Amino acid sequence: MGRCGGGHHDMRCTVARIDLGALRWNLSQLRHRAEGRKIMAMVKANAYGHGMIEVSRTLQESGVDMLGVAFADEGVTLREQGIVVPIMVLTPTMADEARIVVDNALTTVACDFDQVAALGTLAAEGGTKAIVHVYVDTGMHRDGVQPHEAVDFVHALDRLPGIDVQGICTHFATSDEAHSGFLLEQLESFRTVVATLSSAGRTFVHVHAANTGAIWQAEQALCTMVRPGLSLYGYAPPFDDAMTMRPVLSLETKVLSVRRIRAGETVSYGRRYTAPADRTIATIPVGYGDGYPRKLTGKATCLINGRSYPVVGTICMDECMVDVGDDPVAIGDDVVLIGRQADVDGRIASIDATDVAAWAETIPYEITTAITARVPRKYV
């Protein structure tokens, strides 16, 4: 189900369209915002659903300083696809991943002495050094060493063979909140650790803390690098619109079928939608199997011919239905679930991932990341 012709994956009419020009634009805006600091572009989780390989190639061509992934296997995939810029793995690596980390020249976070020591042993045996950044847990309480342990931890790592401690970092828990007092507490804790080490003569090539939200609200004098994620893909924090970011991803499909139903008839599983009058129902080949959340049932809208229509009835695995009233919608008409579309008079309507996230009671990260592999990515 959900194909508009042919039996090949690239014939599917449901597509995530990725605007690489918008990606480059967003990177340029972030460079301006970062005021000369290096950029670690986050491409974890398939580049937030945008396609890790093509996005990474574009970022590498655009001169990004480093790429950030969550897991070692993501870094290996990028190396296998010809990505040569530094790649940092931002979650702790397990002992059985040490070999691929060393062999693929991946930078890792240092959170546990024994894990780092194992990495160093392998690197030293091969006549090289594994690069690590010490991860300080200033309040996220997910990974990292406690601030009161960090200074001794750095000195202990410096004595390990095969280890090059090039950086120090932390992660903020509330950077998506405007004027967050807790963010400032975390920043001060991190600043104290860095200052204590600096006073003892221990400095770092890379000092980083700011993700998208923090780039907008945290004073960056301490840091040499920032880690933009969702802002790269077009979504700046809602509390600051000083820069115009351009959404990179559009989710598009076509009308698969149309039918007239009578007043009182119901639509989809559970009969959750009852037609208040005679009307036309358009079926589109998108469902939760594509990452379009079932939780959008009764809440979402889409664009057809530049007009907004409600998605009605329970969202199915492969399809969902749209109430187009009495409008002349036809099989093959273009449908936009995320993105922009003009009507016959040239007026533009839009739906972005923030809108979809609000309907689904979640965050835009989850909306773009959830788009599944069966939805082809088309790069423009």
Automatic annotation (TrEMBL):
Residues engaged in binding substrate: 142, 317
The keyword Isomerase is annotated on this UniProt entry: yes
Cofactor(s) demanded: pyridoxal 5'-phosphate
GO cellular component: cytosol
Modified positions (N6-(pyridoxal phosphate)lysine) in chain numbering: 44
Catalytic reaction(s) noted: L-alanine = D-alanine
Membrane-spanning parts: none
Enzyme class (EC, first level): isomerase
One Pfam family it belongs to: Ala_racemase_N
Superkingdom of origin: Bacteria
Listed InterPro entries: Ala_racemase, Ala_racemase/Decarboxylase_C, Ala_racemase_C, Ala_racemase_N, PLP-binding_barrel
Domain Alanine racemase C-terminal: 248-380
Any one Gene Ontology BP term: D-alanine biosynthetic process
EC number of this enzyme: 5.1.1.1
Keywords: Isomerase, Pyridoxal phosphate
Residue positions of the active site: 44, 269
Record pathway: Amino-acid biosynthesis; D-alanine biosynthesis; D-alanine from L-alanine: step 1/1
UniProt GO MF annotations: alanine racemase activity; pyridoxal phosphate binding
Family the UniProt entry places it in: Belongs to the alanine racemase family.
Functional description taken from the UniProt entry: Catalyzes the interconversion of L-alanine and D-alanine. May also act on other amino acids.
Designated name of the protein: Alanine racemase
Species whose genome carries this gene: Candidatus Kapaibacterium thiocyanatum
